[in-house]
Amino acid sequence: MRIGILIGRIGGVDGVALETEKWIKVFRKMGHEVFTLSGQFEERKLDPQFETLVPEMSFFSPEGFWGQKKAFHFPDNNLPELLEHIHFYSDLIGNKIVDWAREKKIDVFVSENASALPAHLEMGLGIKKAIVELGLPSITHDHDFYWERGDRYLSPYPEINQIVADNFPLRLPNVFHAVINTYGKDTLQTRFDRKSVVVPNVMNFDLPFGEINETNINLKQNLGFKENDYILAQVTRIVRRKGIETAIQLIHMLEDSNAKLVITGSHSDDEGNVYYNELIEQIHELKLEGQVMFASHIIKNNRRQTPGSKSYALSDAYAHAKASTYFSTYEGFGNAFIESVLGKCPIFVNNYKPVYWPDIGSKGFKTVMLEDNIITDKALTDMKEVIHNETLNREISEYNYQLGKKYFSFDTLEEKLVELLDKAARFSS
Prior knowledge:
By secondary structure, this protein is α/β, with parallel strands linked by helices. It is built from 15 helices and 15 strands. It folds into 2 domains: about 1-200 and about 410-429, 3-Layer(aba) Sandwich (Rossmann fold), CATH 3.40.50; about 220-405, 3-Layer(aba) Sandwich (Rossmann fold).
């Protein structure tokens, strides 16, 4: 089949973009031709045969940004101008999608969250127009929904709220839904009587990851740590829902100066640096300045280095960590959990809602799990045992790795994509 991917941005570290890259790899492994239409290609050169840029589809385009600002953030009581803008650019984007699909002879569309979350109204409506006009079977990869974001997508204009309610998630006879968790599946069924296929986020278990090698062997040294220091890795962005304050509290409760918390993500998504400053205050109050490191300057999402370099990849952080801390209060899925499993790194996790236990924890992973981010005496004892008992640490790591390979590998993704494409093929026939 000739598959057409529709996405606002691809190539960076955004969760939707990362999973889309995996879908593309597996589609191609299955023998399909994959063409991508996007508003932004990050950190890559375009392959003109398979990749096409439509700037208006970018979340950061003047068109998309203005629409979001006036619809949700800073309305200016000029609804007619806003509606005219939305309809004009949705028509423009829709027409570009139609022309591209005809040129590339697309058999099935895959809309990457653009038809689920109204983060770009014009793109979402444009995709709908193209699907209606062409009548192609379409898969919407629904990562999250507007009602999961509080008031983020609540407009003072009833007309805008109606547009959102009518079009997100997209509900047409030729649209088939892929959701990333059981909660999403249940919600679509309850709210809209729409069936969906749960497609978990996955990792490539066929590639080396989280292994100590010549390019990362000096990581602890370059972080300024001593040989007998040990690392707990917080491989997340610095945003409040990641529960990083619990990881810092854990370092305090370990009462061990050799314990080092390494936080790999930046605080660029923390609006006003409010949460980041709270963490700095916590570190100061607990006198942990030498034990908590913000390391986004040296540990990057995508490493480009040679032996001896002083920059590292996320894989390198897992390679040197005794365990990873993952005390999130909410996640749509939880890529960092599966990364830890892939990197053979034991995990200290909060039972984050609504996903962790139904979709991940119940599979049988061995972790130290908190409820409501409360570190009990037993949890602390268990974490110390995982950190200091090398045999137990290795056994847990290997057990979780084999379980992850069973449930969250590219093989699992391929099975799910076969199911979705079969549905699309039956519709088109």
